[in-house]
């Protein structure tokens, strides 16, 4: 199954605008909790949501800060919450680890996926394994980009 025209999720946050700076509260320099994420235009046949937060500007390639799946379809992921199963991020932890760039301005991509199923994955699942598992089940997707510089 592939994403077709008109199947874009609208991803926003009350904490920052698309392509604007994220408050240090949500980073390694602050409280390091996830910001609230709002999700609109969820297709009616969505069985679950998944989220990936990664940084393609990392020195050694894309760095994953957070992955979660089997999120009940709803219009928001609240601040400092984990309403699904959290997999292993690039820090080797099963939790949100906020932006923490070693230098310069980095782009943090909050990617949300609407899936036509729930996924049966281990908590040791990483970003690549999640992407592979959900590939044929994505019915809509959306993205919000936040910036951060230390």
Automatic annotation (TrEMBL):
Q: Does Cell cycle count among this protein's keywords?
A: no
Keyword tRNA-binding carried by entry: no
Tell me the SUPFAM superfamilies matching this sequence. Answer: PEBP-like
The family database entries (InterPro entries) matched by this protein are listed as: PEBP, PEBP-like_sf, YbhB_YbcL/LppC-like
Q: By its UniProt entry, which Pfam families does this protein fall under?
A: PBP
Q: Which domain of life is it from?
A: Bacteria
Please give the Gene Ontology molecular function terms for this protein. protein kinase inhibitor activity
Keywords, ordered alphabetically: Protein kinase inhibitor
Stated name of the protein: YbhB/YbcL family Raf kinase inhibitor-like protein
Species assigned in the record = Flavobacterium zhoui
């Amino acid at each position: 199954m592939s994403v077709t025209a008109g199947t874009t999720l609208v991803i926003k946050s009350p904490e920052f605008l698309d392509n604007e700076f994220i408050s240090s509260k949500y980073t390694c320099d602050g409280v390091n909790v996830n910001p609230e994420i709002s999700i609109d235009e969820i297709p009616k046949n969505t069985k679950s949501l998944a989220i990936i937060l990664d940084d393609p500007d990392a020195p050694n390639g894309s760095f994953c800060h957070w992955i979660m799946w089997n999120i009940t379809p709803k219009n928001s992921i609240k601040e400092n919450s984990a309403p699904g199963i959290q997999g292993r991020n690039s820090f080797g932890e099963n939790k949100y680890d906020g932006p923490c760039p070693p230098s310069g301005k980095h782009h943090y991509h909050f990617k949300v996926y609407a899936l036509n199923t729930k996924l049966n994955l281990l908590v040791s699942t990483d970003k690549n394994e999640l992407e592979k598992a959900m590939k044929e089940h994505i019915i809509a997707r959306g993205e919000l980009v936040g910036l951060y510089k230390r």
